[in-house]
Amino acid sequence: MKSTYKKKMLAAGAVMALAGAAQAQSAGSNIVSLGWFRVMPNSSADPMTVDSINGRPVNMTRANTGADIETADTLGLAFTHFFTDNISGELVAGIPPKHDVTGTGEYAKYGKLGSVKQWSPALLVKYHFFDARTKFRPYVGIGVNYTWFTNETITNQQFVDGAFGIPGATMTASAKPSWNPVFNVGANYAINDNWFVGLSVSYLPLSTTATLTTQAGPVTIVSHTKIKIDPVVTFLSVGYRF
What we know:
Blueprint: H1 2-18, E1 30-40, E2 44-45, E3 49-53, E4 56-61, E5 65-69, E6 72-82, E7 87-94, E8 98-105, E9 112-119, E10 122-128, E11 136-154, H2 157-163, E12 170-175, E13 178-190, E14 195-203, E15 207-216, E16 219-228, E17 232-241
């Protein structure tokens, strides 16, 4: 009997621990979260294609060439509004992470080729499990993202010289923006009525086309490559309800 009583007390204590927070995640709540984004691309690139030389079409693919987008960290901010106790909308943004771009295949010998900044704000709809009074609340979400790129810079002169065997050439880069779906899972833990901590993982099926313009005296060479980025993004945050 005593053993059964102790088990019931422990079970009751566990329930109280989980449900002890007030309505930090209930209908009408607004929450601002600040935290750490880690953007981890699963990248690969098609071989470089030379499109034109001085405006004349070439369309020549250079086999065994490519690039990788490296992992980056940045500061993130999210604003969440609970429309019901279980359904919320969230706007997520952050300081654009700066990704290093490294060569692969024939270009691996050059190491870092350059860098790029990625802007990826997203709008999500989330479904939160359990009652609003529960401290620990996992969720699933889906949404849309618009990604664009700035500061696309080629910094490795050895790569610029060697790409077409023209010493002293210059090279500029640009990357195409795109709309993308976002798939999200995570959980929040309410510390009290106003504060909570959260961890989420998002996946974006994201790709872009990078255009490279090489200038060597009077010669202009335009090339492109399609880069699959497909990042997994983690967000560790602290949130405040107001």
